[in-house]
Amino acid sequence: MNIGILGGSFNPVHIGHLMLASYLRQFGGFDEVWLMLSPLNPLKINSTELIPDVTRLRMLDIAIDGADGIQVCDIELSMPRPSYTINTLRYLAKRYPRHTFKLIIGSDNWRIFPEWRDSEAILSEFGVVVYPRPGYQVGTIYDDRVEVVNAPTADISSTFVRKAIARGKDMTYFLPAGVYNFIKTNNLYGTKA
User: d(Cα 1, Cα 32) in Å, to the nearest integer?
Assistant: First the structure.
């Protein structure tokens, strides 16, 4: 199977994540898209807003319940931290030798991709799919290891959702079914009753 790996903190997972995963699964040539929970992004090592791994994992499970071809991948939770994408991809390739894996990143991350550990190895061994993010032009890419997809964009971020929740805003239509209730029930992100 051809698997797309969409990694992130998912703090929290929102409709933009699922819209992208669904689009890539249906129109991007992937048999499945795996949402890979990152416990600690090396480029965000000083983040103080990250809630526990197990809580973010639970929200991902709620979000994809019943989704066709979208899975949750928690492999990085058992790997050394900080987690480096090249190590994760190599581990997945070894663990699932019959699958091929390709990394999916936004145009915001593509801009800083050379800063990633072993970014050249990621390109050579796995390849990268870049999707547009509002405010970040992809530009012209002359590398056959990189595919640019014109996926629909939603100008929404986990940071926006967290701040809105803390201000008491209703995020029902910004989060997957069940996730907002989970957040409110567990008083996450400064939820106001």
Answer: 8
Are 156 and 174 within 8 A, CB to CB? yes
d(CA 26, CA 45): 34
Q: Which tens digits make up the pLDDT trace of 108-133?
A: 999 999 999 999 999 999 999 999 99
Q: How many helices (H) does the chain have, and how many strands (E)?
A: 7, 6
Strands (E), the chain: 2-8, 32-37, 70-73, 100-106, 128-131, 146-148
Asked whether 87 and 79 are in contact (CB, 8 A), the reply is yes
Per-residue pLDDT reduced to its tens digit, 56-91: 999 999 999 999 999 999 999 999 888 899 999 999
Cβ atoms 179, 72 nearer than 8 A: no
Q: Confirm whether pTM is higher than 0.90.
A: yes
Residues 108, 110, 113, 118, Cα dihedral to 10°? 140
Residue of 95, 97, 98, 55 whose CA lies nearest to 77: 55
Cite the DSSP H helix spans in 28-75: 53-64
Phi and psi for 123 in degrees, rounded to 5? -65, -45
Please report, for residues 13, 45, 124, the alpha-carbon distance to residue 121 in angstroms, rounded to integers and kept in the order given. Answer: 28, 22, 5
Question: Which has the closest alpha carbon to 7: 61, 72, 67?
Answer: 72
